[in-house]
């Protein structure tokens, strides 16, 4: 009887652990943004242009949404304790969500973005390089763009 109770107890503990793990998992997916209505979590302005919108998915599953990729990077530089699970940007030509960590970034002073950071995001490196040449800009990786001053009005 003792052996049977031990087995039952083990089964219950394993079941509880598995249930807790499943409840704690957060599906990695980009947010839904209602353009013209949702606001930027850094500056409070309405997010109106999908090609510049970006977001971070936090460890609890919540999202921070931004009207400009430069705003996203500036926000997280100022708030390094915020746990980011996933970074999201839009591919400039297609406006499709892509992982920010694999994107290529064009920074150009001639590019007019919602908060003036001059950053456009691309899924394809050759498209980014071509756009950078047209805009007299430079191409950066995810880790590199985070170190580039955005020069926007929020001081980022």
Our Rg estimate from Cα atoms comes to: 21 Å
**Biggest sheet character:** 4 strands, antiparallel
Q: What is the SS-derived class?
A: alpha+beta
- What's the rounded overall pLDDT mean? 86
Helix content: 25-40%
Beta percentage is 15-25%
- How far apart lie the N and C ends? 67 Å
How do the strands line up in the largest sheet? 2-1-3-4
Count of distinct strands? 7
* pLDDT < 50 runs, ≥5 residues: 7-23
SSE sequence, one letter per element: HEEHEEEEHEH
**Shape annotation:** globular
Q: Helix segment count?
A: 4
Structure, explained:
This protein is α+β, with helices and mostly antiparallel strands. The chain has a domain at 54-145. The chain contains four helices and seven strands. The chain is globular and about 40 Å long.
Blueprint (SSEs and pairs):
Elements: H1 2-24, E1 54-58, E2 63-66, H2 69-78, E3 84-90, E4 97-99, E5 104-107, E6 119-122, H3 125-135, E7 138-140, H4 142-145
Antiparallel strand pairs: 1-2, 1-3, 3-4, 5-6, 5-7
């Amino acid at each position: 009887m003792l052996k049977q109770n031990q087995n039952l107890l083990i089964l219950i503990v394993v079941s509880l652990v598995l249930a807790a793990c499943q409840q704690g998992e957060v599906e990695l997916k980009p947010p839904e943004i209602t353009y013209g209505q949702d606001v930027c979590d850094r500056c409070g302005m309405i997010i109106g242009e999908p090609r510049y919108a970006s977001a971070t998915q936090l460890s609890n599953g919540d999202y921070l949404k931004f009207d400009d990729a430069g705003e996203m990077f500036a926000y997280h530089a100022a708030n390094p304790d915020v746990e980011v699970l996933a970074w999201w940007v839009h591919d400039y030509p297609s406006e499709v969500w892509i992982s920010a960590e694999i994107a290529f970034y064009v920074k150009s002073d001639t590019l007019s973005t919602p908060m003036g950071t001059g950053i456009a995001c691309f899924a394809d490196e050759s498209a980014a390089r071509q756009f950078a040449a047209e805009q007299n800009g430079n191409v950066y990786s995810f880790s590199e763009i985070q170190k580039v001053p955005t020069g926007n009005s929020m001081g980022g």
